[in-house]
Specification:
The protein is built from 4 helices and 11 strands, in the order βαββαβββββαβββα. It is of the alpha+beta class and 190 residues long. It has a 6-stranded mixed β-sheet, sandwiched between helices.
Amino acid sequence: MRINHQTTATQALTLEEFLNLPETQPPSEFINGDIIQKHTPQGQHSLIQIELCKAIDRVAKPNKIAKAFPELRCTFGGDSIIPDIAVFRWARIPIEPSGKIANRFEIHPDWAIEILSPDQRQTKVLSNLLHCSRHGTEFGWLIDPEVESILVIDSTQRVELLSGTSRLPILREIELELTVDQVFDWLTLG
């Protein structure tokens, strides 16, 4: 096993052993048997993440269609990942017998969104989105603020690069029309 980004490993861990470790800051993911520490979000990443969660929740939460979760650990298919935004249809959100939301989400998101940070490897993030797609996620987005484009991965693992006025695909029940330009317009405060 390798621990990448800021630490080193001495022995292999199982997924369950990894999940019992204390949480790191920034958090770590368990991917293909490796522990990989996420990058600390910076300004553009944080602003896109906040605005996109608000936009999704504004149209999806009132009618209990879906909910956007920032930085939520999702454990499925032998990996434990933390998409920048994980969107779950309302009926799939894990609920405890008490009626409260569960702490552990051991299912794939319906829509996974990653925002590329400076110096972050695009292939690692794309690999997470492809893992999601292989396990049932309907859409994955890889948002790249530096080049103002968004890679979209659908459930068949078809990848499409969108930019400018291209309309972004969204879960069909969510009535949200959003273009690539609108996402990056959030970065201009004024």
